[in-house]
Specification:
The strands form 2 sheets. Strands 1, 3, 4, 7, 10, 11 and 13 form a 7-stranded antiparallel sheet that branches. Strands 2, 5, 6, 8, 9 and 12 form a 6-stranded antiparallel sheet that branches. Helix content is 16%, strand content 36%. It starts with a helix and ends in a 7-residue tail after the last strand. It is globular, with a radius of gyration of 22 Å. By secondary structure, it is α+β, with helices and mostly antiparallel strands.
């Protein structure tokens, strides 16, 4: 009788353990199914050893002028392009003079930390390029503002892809979209940007 009880408890423990392991997987799949899609993904940084899939911000290469971007100060779209043409043939880039800024249109993101990468060039800029992300909820309300970091002009004398810029914190609760904001901290010279991508991490949920 005692042996039967032991076998019964062992069997029950096994069932409970299997159920516990299944919950995170089911939850991840459920979350992934209800999150908004950011659209088609590509692998623009594969040549630099980055096999991550990225979504493109609207008008990522500024080939449609300032469409989908809010420019302030001495910000403008100029002739020029990152030389690898990762988003296709292009002839334009964004230029930020001293104190100028640019804010993208919203792009859907998940509840996990997103990665962001783009191409930058310091055209004799005497200060850094501040990168921030503005988070919004489903009604368009602001849920948070995160400083992703500041690029130093020393590493961008020529066009270069940035490193994988990663937020240090999980996204604020109820966040559904993100906007990237670039601000030139230079007193003279300018920054040029092109092909802005986001890895929304939606696919990492299973």
């Amino acid at each position: 009788m005692r042996c039967k009880r032991i076998r019964l408890w062992c069997a029950l423990a096994g069932v409970l353990a299997a159920a516990a392991l299944a919950v995170p997987v089911a939850s991840a799949s459920l979350i992934g199914s209800v999150l908004p899609s950011c659209g088609a993904t590509t692998y623009p940084f594969a040549a630099w050893g980055d096999s991550t899939a990225y979504c493109a911000f609207p008008n990522l290469g500024f080939e449609s002028g300032a469409t989908s971007w809010m420019l302030k100060g001495t910000a403008s779209v100029v002739a020029g392009n990152e030389p690898w043409h990762v988003s296709g043939s292009g002839t334009h880039a964004l230029q930020l003079g001293p104190g100028a800024s640019a804010l993208s249109s919203p792009l859907p993101v998940s509840l996990l930390d997103p990665y962001m990468r783009f191409f930058a060039h310091s055209a004799n800029a005497t200060g850094g390029l501040q990168v921030q992300v503005l988070f919004r909820g489903v009604t368009g309300n602001v849920t948070g503002l995160l400083n992703f970091g500041t690029l130093s002009p020393n590493g961008y004398a020529t066009w270069q892809p940035t490193q994988r810029v990663l937020s240090a914190l999980a996204l604020p609760l109820l966040t559904s979209t993100a906007q990237v904001q670039f601000t030139s901290q230079a007193k003279s010279g300018s920054w040029q940007l092109d092909d802005v991508y986001l890895d929304p991490r939606i696919g990492k949920l299973g």
